[in-house]
Specification:
Elements (H helix, E strand, L loop, with lengths): L34 H4 L6 H12 L8 H7 L4 H14 L2 E7 L5 E7 L66 H12 L1 H4 L7 H16 L4 H9 L9 H11 L8 H4 L11 E3 L6 E3 L7 H10 L1
Antiparallel strand pairs: 1-2, 3-4
Length: about 300
């Protein structure tokens, strides 16, 4: 007598919206990255990808801006901005170190988890050998091999550098009302060209003497604006401090006069030009007076 077979229908796979992960376990050639980096809300995609690339490199690899620009399609400006992002977030620490031969190099330390304490180095201890009974024969047992000493990893903390004291803001020779109004208007107008450069009235008043110094040195307002807004870091936390640094560090020298621009050869003495006191004609002489024609006329009249 047959028994009726009842087969339950297969459950349909529910529809899933969004990403579907197909993960294969890595056994070699992989790097562990924390979600605090992969899903960081304050870093750009370029900075996150650059941090993953740096953490996958072996110790001693070169990660200068030019070397990374040769490796990736991003420009040196964008890579430099991404490195500054990682420094601000604590994933990188760069410092200038003087070597024994006098050269100064950049030391870069990469942190896979900022803020966490570095693990202490441990020395592997060999297991105690089990006691075995002596063999029945009268031959002596071979000596047990001496375990090789295990290397001890020494973690070198990054060098601590003190922040350099800010340079004093340049002060103009004469702070005229016209130059003061022009400088204040230039600072207030920066947010039209770079929205992150929003300054308070107090910041504008404090930075105005530095801009007046630039104007005294015949710097065009477009030149000043470009120097203050080009290649801004991302994110920009302190606009007033950044502008103060650029106004001070990028201050151009005064324009040279015409006498400094005269080309002279070694051994050649340049005699200056003089204006004749009688006919106002230009002539070369070490001392002011009359030109040759006027001196001839004066001698003939005498």
């Amino acid at each position: 007598m047959g028994t009726q077979q009842i087969t339950a229908p297969l459950c349909a796979r529910p529809a899933v919206s969004g990403v579907i992960h197909i993960n294969v376990r890595h056994t070699a050639g992989f790097t562990v990255i924390g979600n605090h980096l992969a899903q960081h809300r304050g870093l750009s995609l370029v900075a996150i990808g650059l941090a993953v690339h740096i953490q996958s490199l072996p110790a001693g690899a070169k990660i200068g801006v030019k070397r990374l620009a040769e490796r990736f399609p991003e420009s040196e400006t964008r890579i430099a901005a991404a490195l500054r992002e990682l420094e601000a977030a604590g994933y990188l620490h760069r410092s200038r170190v003087r070597l024994a031969d006098g050269r100064i190099v950049t030391r870069t330390v990469s942190y896979n988890q900022p803020g966490a304490d570095a693990p202490t180095a441990r020395t592997a201890q060999p297991r105690a050998a089990r006691s075995t009974p002596e063999p029945a024969s009268h031959e002596p047992a071979p000596p047990a091999p001496t375990p090789a000493p295990q290397p001890v990893a020494v973690l070198v903390p990054p060098p601590t550098t003190r922040p350099a004291s800010p340079l004093p803001l340049p002060q103009p020779q004469v702070l005229t009302p016209e130059l003061q109004r022009t400088a204040a208007a230039l600072l207030a107008d920066l947010r039209r060209h770079a929205p992150q450069l929003v300054l308070s009235e107090g910041d504008i008043s404090a930075l105005t003497p530095g801009i007046v110094t630039w104007l005294e040195r015949d710097a065009h307002p477009d030149t000043i604006r470009h120097a203050l807004t080009a290649d801004l870091p991302v994110p920009l936390k302190h606009p007033a401090k950044l502008l103060r640094h650029r106004i001070t560090a990028l201050l151009p020298p005064p324009l040279p006069g015409t006498h400094e621009l005269e080309a002279t050869r070694p051994g050649v003495i340049v005699i200056p030009l003089q204006n004749c006191d009688r006919c106002d004609r230009a002539f070369r002489s070490r001392h002011p007076g009359h030109c040759r024609d006027c001196r001839t006329d004066l001698s003939a009249a005498a």
